[in-house]
Design goal:
alpha+beta
């Protein structure tokens, strides 16, 4: 019995012989006539496959036709596979070396979306000054670039003003504060001695967080500006970070008359603040907002600090409620 691969080889030879015999240029190829006839008859279907294979077997047995052995073919195939495997290993090694070189020579220094606060914003000591409230608490919300909530109470950064909702730079300022002092951070709040009345329910203060003065950091990074109209009304006008206040506007009382500053996480001192002059209770309405009554600055107000939405804005818009200049303020 012939092996299966022998049979396939014979069939292949048969097709080849038939094709050769069909050519015109075959005058003398040294092929016996009976082989030509058998191949021609088999190709035409005149003899059976069994008869044709018998003829081809005879030629193989007499070594008139030689076929490569199965062992030779398998050996060549194995050699090719081994060569491909070796080549694959070399390529993988080269790729690993390139990756290693890239890691060493080109470190990933891609900056985050907003640069961190500059080193100049860091402070050596975090302590309160003056006699107003001083306490530690946890940040519960970042309202915008100049207002946060500490234990759910609103704290406005003293002397700092950042863009309102809808104005260019609003998102950058808010995200910057959220990055350097995210919700959950512990802060020290030093209330402004000269603005203890607050601003629309917010305490006005200097705020320290993660080794930084947030008032100073937002100004150093250029996301906000000094509210110069309050320089004469703020305890912090003499601070180095309040560089927009050109001259010293506030002279603190003699040290002997000041209560000791409280360290972080202490109760506010019990000393009564000085009595301030009565404040006009009926504010004048700014003409830029004809449909509602909103007083002119100071203080500078945010949309979240007034009860109005979608109101008409004309003229100079001193509070910058109309960020997109479409004539409508604090659009919901």
């Amino acid at each position: 019995m012939l092996r299966k691969w022998h049979i396939l080889a014979i069939l292949g030879i048969g097709f080849s012989v038939t094709a050769v015999l069909s050519l015109q240029a075959q005058e003398d190829l040294g092929i016996p006539q009976w082989v030509k006839n058998n191949a021609l008859w088999w190709g035409q279907g005149s003899i059976s496959d069994s008869d044709f294979m018998s003829a081809m077997s005879y030629l193989i047995e007499k070594k008139l036709i030689s076929l490569p052995s199965q062992d030779d073919y398998s050996q060549k195939l194995r050699s090719k596979i081994i060569a491909l495997q070796d080549e694959n290993k070399m390529l993988k090694k080269s790729i690993d070396e390139l990756k290693k070189q890239k890691t060493l020579s080109v470190p990933d220094n891609s900056p985050s979306y907003y640069d961190p606060a500059p080193k100049s914003s860091r402070v050596q000591a975090q302590s309160c000054s003056g006699y107003a409230a001083c306490f530690s608490g946890q940040v519960t919300e970042i309202v915008d670039g100049d207002t946060i909530k500490v234990d759910s109470d609103s704290i406005r950064f003293a002397l700092v003003n950042t863009p309102e909702v809808g104005q260019y730079g609003y998102g950058q300022a808010k995200d910057f504060i959220a990055k350097i002092c995210p919700p959950g951070s512990t802060v020290l709040v030093d209330e402004d001695d000269l603005q203890t009345q607050g601003s629309y329910g917010r305490m006005i203060a200097a705020v320290y967080c993660n080794g930084m003065n947030l008032n100073k950091a937002i100004l150093d990074q250029g996301y906000g500006k000094i509210e110069t109209s309050f320089c004469s009304k703020s305890e912090f006008a003499n601070e180095g970070w309040a560089y927009g206040c050109a001259t010293k506007q506030y002279t603190p009382p003699p040290k002997s008359e000041q209560p000791k500053s409280n360290p972080p996480k202490t109760e506010p001192p019990k000393t009564e603040p000085p009595k301030s002059e009565p404040v006009e209770t009926t504010p004048s309405c700014d003409p830029s907002y004809p449909d509602v009554c909103i007083p002119s600055p100071p203080p500078d107000l945010d949309c979240g600090e007034i009860p109005y939405k979608n109101f008409k804005v004309i003229g100079s818009d001193p509070h910058r409620f109309d960020g997109d200049h479409d004539g409508i303020g604090c659009e919901s």
